Amino acid sequence: MAILHNPLLNLVSEKIFNALEELYPEHGLTQQKVYDLISIPPNLKMGQFAFPCFPLAKALKKGPPQISGEIAAKIETSTFIEAVNPTGPYLNFKLSNEAFGALVVKDILSGEFFKKDLTDERPKTMIEYSQPNTHKELHVGHMRNLCLGNALVRIKRYCNQEVIATTYPGDSGTHVAKCLWYLKKHVKQEDIPSENKGAWLGKIYSTANLLLEDEKGTDKEDQNRAELTAILKELEAESGEYFDLWQETKKWSLELMNQAYSWADVDFDRWFFESEVDRPSLQTAKRLYEEGHLTKDDGAIGMDLSEEKLGFCILIKSDGNGLYSTKDVELAIKKFTEFGIKKNIYIVDDRQSFHFKQVFKVLEKIGFEEAKDCYHLPYDVVELPDGAMSSRKGNIVPLMELISKMESTIKENYLESYRGDWSDEEIESTAKIIANGAIKYGMIRVDNNRKIVFDMQEWLKLDGDTGPYLQYVYARVNSLVKKIDLEIPEDIAWNKLSKDQEVALLLKLQSFNDIALKCHEQNKTIHLTSYLFELGKLYNSFYAECPINKEEDQQIKVARLALSKAVASTIEMGLSILGIQSPSRM
Questions:
Q1: Is the pLDDT of residue 392 over 70?
Q2: Could you give the CA distance from residue 570 to residue 559 in angstroms, rounded to a whole number?
Q3: Mean pLDDT in residue range 570-584
């Protein structure tokens, strides 16, 4: 569970809990429960934190408003607590700016705020994400899975979780056979490029698929099917010219994947390949059939899940081959056995929801106890403004081409004017950081259950809910701090800050860790992206209404500068745990 990591909530909950212990020994709440019940009221004029007294009414046999008033009378004001106001069933606390500065901002500036333990629950968790197929070209649609998985791994590690990041590329199956078939029959050796072979191979797959579709219904259809079957059998036997070609061409695809992962700053602790569970999965399915866990239906072997309204889950087809479900049963067992994990999260799009329900139910019914610890995290797909993408049809936006185009656009529209003042190297690196932030933020700022429409121009805007907007806010604060160049003392006059924009920023900063923990617990990134966007807007409002360099009162100037540095540090950390870098200037 969450622990008392927020110093302000800890302060308030301790005061409430001590009053409850003195007034009503029979109240039945722990300080942790009191802490969890505290929220931020909608009207900040009443206070920054509110405690609802409803949960106490039954045990104390009193009305919540009466309880609220009696607790308020028991709590004394102090340097940190300016007022305790009972408002109907709620108990509202108004804390001083000194409390926010001393207990929160000071730790943000030192970095200690970002090192706190947020929860004492740390199950060893595997997150499987990014399952691209070899022999196909990576496109922008693949980035939602990659960015979501990478962000969740980082968020959980920030929350002190032990996380094993894994990927599961599809390197076997009919799509591979189609690609190899076309390479052998229709491509000359001299036509194979010397570089960028992975992207070229993806285009070969699309061409092969379109040709096979065109030849359906012709005298070539049966021959094509027979040739593809022969290729698959050769790959299964792990010998022959097609097997050799598969090994060579797989390397081309992996080079492309690693190029994309390097650009995205993504690392995996373990690569599982579909081919490594091909044979073992069939052996497991046959064993389960012999043990009586599976039944035969119309030549196919599987499990009848009709009572669970999940139909018949086929594990061995009538031709003796396995399916994705066969491999996923084997892979789940392999994950828990190899790593001793306690939780297994699959990040796969929502079109596979039924598939995973079947797989998890099969695992449960064969007696695999860890089935309850397998969790499918679905998300909706990425589309272009004119509709869905398809590698089979070839209507995709190739990822590396997109990246190159975005970086060129950024340099042309934003950074060329700095050439001469900035080195060419800084312009190149900044363009990469901005493009990286635009794609990653755009892919994770939308709730998992909503579709994403990719629009490069919209995602590069500096005045909306985008990665470049937040990077720009950070760079702006960073430049301001360097320009003023004031040393921040240990003792800051936080109570000199009185404007609404200053108070709003102080309140926003204290909840950063609460938001990170919420993202971890719910497996969502949207809470953190929304938080950072709101923080950026609040800072811009503060910047417009609360001048720093022109402020004559030195104590106010220092406090505002310290507040600005804290905002920059929080934005930088927030973007970092989403996998996004913050350029020092833009």
A1: no
A2: 16
A3: 97
